[in-house]
Inverse folding.
């Protein structure tokens, strides 16, 4: 049984199928006024934007809660990313009533091309 599971996992990895992981933005980002410098300094955003730039078919999904505050934060983050030259067509907002804070998910990047354009 263990060998079969290992074989299935290996096939998934080799075929480039991987579950996208969600990366949380720190809640402290919303505790003070934002600036381009502050937004760009966030490691999660640095990683996400680098991956988007390296993979033209990739998209960024911003998961947020259903409250007015969560929706406003997601929309503000989207606006910041657009202002920092991320194509608006590559950013999607997703209401997730179970979400705590904002979580980013990169779509369209497989294991075989992660880190490579």
């Amino acid at each position: 049984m263990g060998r079969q599971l290992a074989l299935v996992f290996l096939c998934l990895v080799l075929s480039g199928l991987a579950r996208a992981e969600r990366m949380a933005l720190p809640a402290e980002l919303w505790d003070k006024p934002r600036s381009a410098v502050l937004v760009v300094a966030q490691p999660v955003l640095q990683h996400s934007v680098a991956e988007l730039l390296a993979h033209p078919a990739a998209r960024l999904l911003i998961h947020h809660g259903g409250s007015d505050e969560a929706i406003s934060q997601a929309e503000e983050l989207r606006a910041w990313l657009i202002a920092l030259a991320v194509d608006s067509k590559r950013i999607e907002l997703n209401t997730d009533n179970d979400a705590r804070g904002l979580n980013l998910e990169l779509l369209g990047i497989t294991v075989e091309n992660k880190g490579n354009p």
Notes: The two ends are 37 Å apart (CA to CA). Strands lie at 22-24, 59-64, 91-95, 103-107.
